[in-house]
Amino acid sequence: MLDKVSRKDVAAPTYAETFKDALPSKEKVAEVRKRLEEQGVKYVMSAWIDLHGIPKTKPVPMSDFEALCAGKGPQFAVHSISFVPELTPADSDQVMVPDLDAVYVCPWDKTVAIIFADLFWEDKPYNVCPRQALKRAIRDAAEVGYVGYAGIEPEFIVMRYDENGQPVKAFDDDPRNVGGLRPRRQAFGYDVEYSLDSMPFLRELMDILEGLGWNLHDVVAEGAYSQFELDFHYTHLLEMADRLAFLRILLKEVAKKHGLFVTFMPKPTTGDWRSGAHINFSLRSIDALDKNLFETDEGGWSEESRHAVGGLLAHAEAITAITCPTVNSYNGLVPRVGGFEGGTVTWAPTNITYGFNNRSAQFRLPQSRHCLENRAADMCMNVYLALAVTLGAAVEGIVQRTDPGKPTDRDLYSMSREELDEAGIRRLPRNLLEAIGHLSEDPLMKKVLGPVMLKSYLAYKNDEWERYHQAVTDWEVKEYLRLY
Q1: Half-sphere exposure (CA, 13 Å, Cβ side) for 191?
Q2: How far apart are CA 383 and CA 310, in angstroms?
Q3: Where along the chain do its domains lie?
Q4: Which has the least CB within 10 A, 130, 203, 209, 456?
Q5: Is 131 helix (H, G, I), strand (E, B) or coil?
Q6: How does DSSP classify residue 134?
């Protein structure tokens, strides 16, 4: 991303009110087609985003590119697969319009391009299109003078199948079948030996990200064995959401080439480190896009940053239902777990507060950059919805001058519940049901997502919770079968 960008580029990617207004110009279509053909692209996957943040498509040949861009390409019965119960088999299909500013040629197969698209239904933006929800939130923020930016820290675990067809960690040198013994070993995090062992996979991944121009800063061997984090540069919200959606595809495809697979499940193994996806968020004025509103001229934290934190804190539980969207997400939002290589403290947020470089708080104000880091987020989130509600809450905080209170600059893991209550620090939701309860009651979430999408999201997540409680886990069998 360029450090200085024009107002036209990011102030508000066009939120078209009608299908016709959303169509790209013939000149733009011709320009993009020429560029794709010069790069050897033969097939296009114009991809819309479902309720879970997962891209869906119907591939078309390049010969159909003009028809695709005119809205005459594939149509979709989105309501048949995405748990959006407001429509029936008797209703119209959804039509997608590709965004020709969101074109990604697949580095692992350069004959294929993925183009992110917006869904329309009966001439209007489809009200269960997450990408449209983010574009609408960006438009609303621009109308009061703000533009949002984000960087995301994706963490994931690389796995493989063993000789018995069971999933195991790809980069893990523990001997297997050692009679119950688990030999002492050094931590995986930051380790040079394990980083070298992982380089055949990481090398290809790093080369691809560099080629995409995302300004990759580093790759981190994280706390869990075979767990990695990528750090690449921030950009404006819609582009960051598209990048993360593309990255999830890219990671899986590169892993397959090495006989591996990637999981974004936050907590795939008991007693291990959680995989997160911290959101680093900042704002700029629409009239001064070269200046971070969260930083003062003297290099300190601005009043706008305080009020933005206040807005995020006010809606923290509801936001968490979006950024930590699965039953499994909450297995990672615990303060301590025995047996960690690096100790027992998880470094995962469990309390709703903020602090200066405090990694035990939900919102961290880092020492190295002027952004608000939400540490309660993981790679299962629908990133379009996550960034939409983050932007909405932060802007509301600034407009209403919400007071975040005093920062918490001490180790929250060592504080008793009485101390936390005395400081007015709320507990993060302990499970998905608690989180979606807050989501259902938050008026800002209804405004940002829209009532129909919110209803659909809540319906799916309630169903997920009910299905979870119909399953009997291994833990329950071990805990109760012989005890009672």
Answers
A1: 19
A2: 22
A3: 20-122, 143-480
A4: 203
A5: helix
A6: H
Q: Residue 305 — φ and ψ, nearest 5°?
A: -65, -40
The DSSP annotation for 321-361 comes to HHHS-STGGGGS--SEEEEETTEEE-----EEEEEET-TTE
CATH C-level class of 143-480? alpha beta
- Please report, rounded to a whole number, the percentage of residues in the chain having pLDDT higher than 70: 94
Q: Scan for tokens 């629908």, then name that residue.
A: 382
Q: For residues 140 and 80, what is the distance between their CA atoms, to the nearest angstrom?
A: 30
Per residue in 420-461, pLDDT tens?
A: 999 999 999 999 999 999 999 999 999 999 999 999 999 999
For residue 140, which amino acid is it? D
Check: pTM over 0.85? Answer yes or no. yes
**Torsional class of 347: left (φ above 0), alpha (ψ -120 to 50), beta (otherwise):** left
The vertex-151 CA angle with 149 and 154, nearest 5°, equals 150
For 390-416, the pLDDT digits (tens) are: 999 999 999 999 999 999 999 999 999
Amino acid letter, 217:
H
More confidently predicted of 244 and 273: 244
Are the C-beta atoms of 462 and 145 separated by less than 8 Å? no
Confirm if 461 and 437 have CB atoms less than 8 A apart: no
Higher pLDDT, 341 or 195: 195
Distance from C-alpha of 468 to C-alpha of 272, rounded to nearest angstrom: 21
Q: What is the pLDDT of residue 11?
A: 47
CA dist 29 and 422 (Å) reads 60
